[in-house]
Design goal:
With 297 residues, the protein is α/β, with parallel strands linked by helices. The chain is 42% helix and 22% strand. It is built from eleven helices and eleven strands. Strands 3, 4, 5, 6, 7, 8, 9, 10 and 11 form a nine-stranded mixed beta sheet that branches. A two-stranded antiparallel ribbon has the order 1-2. A hairpin with a 4-residue loop joins strand 1 and strand 2.
């Protein structure tokens, strides 16, 4: 069945005139006749009753008109969808994120993106640094909000710094250090230390340990919890000291006191994506570039 013949039939059925249909389709009347004849021969059905003055649909023609209109609409929608998907304005965008680092900006960012890309479904997945690296390398997510990537991943992933987050000392509100306005690495290193799991944030762990090693300080890391909320719970219930990004203050911090580290150090929050970016990823990156100043952190 020829798609062009269907469109010709619909025009004739609506106009009830071969000559008018020819004018609307910018062709000659003989071409209209050939299309209709070919369609009826293909279907082995009479669709139109015509004479020199009138054109009327047969009962079969009336029924077929409904199907023909549905087919043409479906094809038109399919074409539009294909264009939207290729341009990244329709599809799925999967975003991995660190909840503690993103809680203060990501909801509004996603709302604004969705206003302009209503046909893109956004799926967000809370993930650790290590989980995001694996998901990005396996094409399981499109965008990641995480810490700087290790060198081994740099040929595979693009990276853009989004924000700096100062490392702070976290102690129980009953700890003997809780009244201080700042704490040095030398002072923090005298207490049992809690750091977020190295397996889930290698660079962050190693950079904090380097802070002590540069000062020839030997520290006792007694715990490496796999979630920041667990880290806070351990701190609140012990005499230990933790060093963690200040963003974890967005979590449940009852019983904890955050104190600036002096000299200070920062960890970066970065946005990552594959070098083989999907169409929806490119749409996100274009939108982010246009709105970066609004969400500058």
């Amino acid at each position: 069945m020829n798609f062009k013949h269907l469109k010709t039939f619909i025009e004739v059925a609506q106009c009830k005139s071969f000559s008018t249909a020819a004018a609307r389709l910018h062709t000659v009347q003989s071409a209209i006749s050939r299309h209709i004849n070919a369609l009826e021969e293909d279907l082995e059905v009479t669709l139109l009753l015509r004479n020199t003055r009138t054109v009327e649909l047969t009962e079969a023609g009336e029924n077929f008109l409904l199907h023909a209109q549905a087919i043409v609409k479906h094809c038109r929608d399919a074409k539009e969808d294909a264009k939207l998907i290729q341009s990244g304005h329709k599809g799925l965008l999967r975003i991995g994120y660190l909840s503690s680092a993103c809680a203060h900006f990501l909801p509004d960012m996603l709302r604004q993106f969705s206003k302009q890309h209503e046909n893109v479904k956004v799926k967000i997945i809370e993930m650790t640094v290590a989980e995001q690296l694996q998901a990005l390398s396996e094409n399981a997510i499109d965008i990641g909000f995480s810490r700087p990537i290790p060198d081994a991943y740099k040929p595979l992933l693009e990276e853009k710094r989004v924000a700096y987050d100062p490392i702070q000392v976290v102690v129980s509100d009953k700890h003997e250090l809780h009244t201080l306005s700042e704490i040095s690495p030398d002072m923090a290193g005298k207490y049992p230390l809690i750091l977020f799991s190295r397996a889930h944030a290698t660079n962050q762990f190693d950079n904090i340990m380097a802070l002590f090693h540069e000062r020839n300080l030997s520290v006792n890391v007694v715990s490496e919890p796999h979630s920041m909320q667990a880290l806070l719970t351990e701190v609140a219930s012990s005499n230990c000291v933790a060093l963690a990004p200040s963003c974890i203050q967005n979590l449940q911090t009852n019983g904890c006191k955050f104190i600036p580290l002096n000299p200070g150090m920062n960890v970066e929050l970065c946005m990552h994506w594959s070098t083989q970016a999907s169409a929806t990823t490119n749409a996100w990156l274009t939108w982010y570039k246009e709105n970066e100043d609004i969400f500058r952190l």
